[in-house]
Design brief:
The complex is a heterodimer of chains A (320) and B (351).
Chain A: H1 2-22, H2 26-29, H3 44-51, H4 58-63, H5 68-100, H6 104-114, H7 121-133, H8 162-169, H9 172-183, H10 187-195, H11 200-211, H12 213-229, H13 232-237, H14 246-258, H15 265-280, H16 285-317
Helix pairs in contact in A: 1-16, 3-16, 5-8, 5-9, 5-12, 9-12, 10-11, 12-16, 14-15, 14-16
Chain B: H1 2-13, H2 29-60, H3 77-83, H4 86-106, H5 108-117, H6 122-132, H7 138-149, H8 155-163, H9 178-188, H10 194-201, H11 205-213, H12 218-246, H13 250-255, H14 267-276, H15 280-304, H16 339-350
Helix pairs in contact in B: 3-15, 4-9, 4-12, 4-14, 5-10, 10-12, 12-15, 12-16, 14-15
Classes of the chains: A mainly alpha (320), B mainly alpha (351).
């Protein structure tokens, strides 16, 4: 119907704007009224993005501390590790909760796993931050061993990528997704497999796993997208500039470029200076749009891959 | 095997079947060991990064949480301080306004669109879904909106002045309107809800055909078949929306960084500011207040709307008792939670 077509069209408008803005020149980007098609399409912004990858390029040095690909690799590492660790953990737990556990244990562990979904993540922000500094103590400093001057031994994962990976590995939302799906698999299939013998893990691997490909595809995609886009938590736990992921870097650039409102004059002046710096380095909205494209590209690729598996899985199951 | 044992136990004791278990058979040790191994990593992670920080947050809020000097127990000091903090009060007001606007404007549309979408022929659904769900990273799309909202050269300004011939609008720079404009892209660039589509796919065609034979119009079919089926999902997603919009952070941070003079500074944004100022105890207390507020709203909602199919299955479904693990007829691709169960059971009286 008409409404649906309108919706699809409107939805594509931002994508269109991102692409054409990245092709505009710096001056045209600021032009009013905004042009729907670049008057003189130029690859200047894209060239800037490529320049940002070179270590000794003067532009790059002014804008970033490191070549852009460093941040990209950081993001890639964090996202991959989150997937590699998180998906198996979450799906195993969901399978156990759905098929292997029974009775009161199943109910309580269900609450245990998804209870934190109801809590605002803001609440756990600070203790988690402190935890990354002195694991396992969620305190600003490890307490002293009573009767001596030494502090308890503690592990510091702060300022390493693991501080970003480990807390986000288990996702309660994915747990719900997996459990909901495993619940729809008839028990009889599992019972039949048990009669044939073999460990539970083998049953899971041989029978349940091939059936669950669509759900794994959806879970992989959601976890990847949320991990790739995350910028608040990495900014909190990562301090060295060369370790932050690309999403956080884009945010920092945007912050420098736009210098949002502050309440005191000193900070405002500093921001104005930063903005000058950024503009003189040639970065304007077109450059930011290029970065936006680069940020979205991996998510898009993973989406396409996930869709492949989603559809293939549905065919295997013989649905629809 | 275990199930045979269970049946014997049942027959012998004549026990009433509880909703969830078939008389909880004693599983073999090997089974229990394997179950334990399956859940162990997740338990460790969830315990360490989920529950422990939560409990630590409550404990921390009663101290002064200094980073360098030793920590001291201060009791309710921080709580009182934050209760009277004008910035915190403003943050809560802003968050309530934003949550209200979001749910009012953007919650209902995906439902309607999903219902309309399912009426289209199959191939149309497929390409529409593809186009609609081309993902743009959240960061990227917020960036685009920021660009479009610029008062000098943004597209929205162009629409306002050239097409609608209004005076130049301040958009994100207006303290009174900023929250509306933050919500607006969600309304303008609408799309169907994936979960609604999945649930609607699970409704057998025969229901609609039966209704058509009875002479039901399109909207009547929607009202009597689709909506009751969607009710548990809608309920669950409404709760998630409330919880999610109460924690709004990224949208505000990227679009306005707290807006003109804090007009769009949500609670989490303010919490982040406190964090940067190293006021850890105050920040944690703010988080506790947020949590309590959200819980209160959810509790009130649950009291008012007595529709609770996705709670851990403790209730007895009179006349419909069966263990929760048994298969329900095809619930469509990847229905997100066990609410498909509730949906299937609920539709009996609804239709």
């Amino acid at each position: 119907m008409a409404i649906l077509c309108l919706g699809v069209f409107l939805h594509l408008v931002p994508i269109y704007i991102v692409v054409i803005t990245s092709l505009k020149s710096s001056a045209e980007v600021l032009h009013f009224p905004p042009t729907w098609f670049p008057r003189e399409p130029t690859l200047a912004a894209w060239r800037l993005a490529v320049d940002l990858n070179y270590r000794d390029n003067p532009v790059a040095l002014r804008l970033l501390d490191r070549p852009m690909y460093v941040f990209f690799l950081n993001s890639a590492f964090i996202a991959t590790m989150t997937l590699v660790i998180g998906i198996p953990i979450t799906s195993f737990a969901a399978y156990a909760n759905s098929k292997l556990q029974r009775g009161a244990i199943a109910r309580w562990s269900f609450i245990f796993f998804i209870g934190t979904l109801m809590m605002p993540t803001a609440l756990t922000l600070i203790p988690s931050y402190l935890l990354t500094r002195n694991w396992p103590f969620a305190l600003p400093q490890a307490p002293l061993i009573p009767g001596s001057d030494m502090a308890f031994p503690s592990v510091r994962i702060w300022d390493t990528p693991w501080a970003v990976i480990l807390p986000t590995a288990f996702s309660a939302f994915n747990f719900l997704l997996f459990k909901g799906f495993f619940d729809t698999i008839p028990d009889s299939i599992i019972q039949a497999a048990r009669v044939d013998g073999g460990s539970e893990f083998n049953i899971f691997r041989r029978i349940v796993l091939p059936l669950s490909i669509p759900v794994y595809a959806v879970a992989v995609w959601t976890l990847f997208a949320s991990s790739w886009d995350e910028f608040l938590w990495p900014l909190i736990v990562l301090q060295s500039p060369e370790k932050i992921p690309m999403s956080a870097e884009i945010w920092l650039l945007l912050d420098k470029f736009l210098g949002a409102g502050t309440t005191n004059a000193g900070a405002a002046a500093a921001q104005a200076k930063q903005m000058q710096q950024v503009m003189s380095a040639g970065l304007s909205w077109n450059g930011l749009m290029v970065l936006a494209v680069l940020q979205s590209l991996p998510i898009f690729i993973v989406f396409v891959l996930a869709r492949e598996y989603l559809l293939k899985g549905i065919q295997i199951r013989g649905l629809k | 095997m275990a199930s045979a044992q269970a049946e014997v136990t049942l027959a012998r004791s004549g026990a009433r079947t509880d909703e969830t278990a078939v008389a909880v058979p004693r599983q073999s040790r090997r089974r229990r060991l394997e179950t334990g191994l399956f859940v162990l990593p997740a338990v460790l992670f969830q315990l360490c990064w989920g529950w422990y920080p939560l409990i630590a947050a409550f404990l921390l809020s009663f101290t002064n949480a200094r980073v360098r000097s030793p920590i001291a127990f201060t009791g309710l000091d921080s709580y009182l301080r934050m209760w009277h903090d004008p910035l915190a009060i403003q943050a809560f007001r802003v968050t309530a306004l934003y949550a209200g606007l979001t749910i009012l404007l953007t919650f209902v549309v995906p439902i309607i669109v999903a219902i309309l979408l399912m009426e289209m022929p199959r191939h149309a659904i497929r390409w529409m879904m593809l186009l609609w769900f081309i993902p743009l990273s959240v960061l990227a799309s917020t960036l685009v909106f920021r660009y479009m909202y610029n008062t000098q050269y943004g597209i929205f300004q162009w629409v306002a002045t050239e097409i609608l011939h209004l005076p130049p609008q301040p958009f994100l720079n207006s303290a009174s309107q900023v929250n509306f404009w933050i919500v607006f892209p969600g309304l303008l660039f609408f799309g169907p809800g994936l979960i609604y589509i999945a649930t609607l796919q699970g409704i057998p065609r025969s229901y609609y055909e039966a209704a058509e034979i009875e002479g039901a119009s399109f909207w009547r079919k929607v009202w009597t078949i689709s909506i009751p089926r969607l009710r548990p999902v809608i309920s669950m997603l409404l709760i998630f929306s409330i919880i999610g919009s109460a924690q709004a952070f990224e949208l505000q941070q990227i679009m306005t960084d707290g807006g003109p003079g804090g007009a769009s500074r949500t609670v989490v944004l303010y919490l982040y500011t406190l964090l940067q100022d190293l006021r850890f105890a105050d920040a944690t207390v703010l988080g506790v207040y947020l949590f309590l507020g959200v819980m209160a709203i959810v509790a009130i909602y649950r009291l008012l709307v007595n529709d609770d199919p996705d709670a851990p299955t403790r209730r007895r479904w009179f006349g419909l008792s069966r263990p929760s693990g048994t298969p329900v007829h095809d619930a469509g691709a990847a229905s997100a939670t066990g609410t498909a169960d509730g949906a299937q059971r609920r539709e009996q009286p609804g239709v």
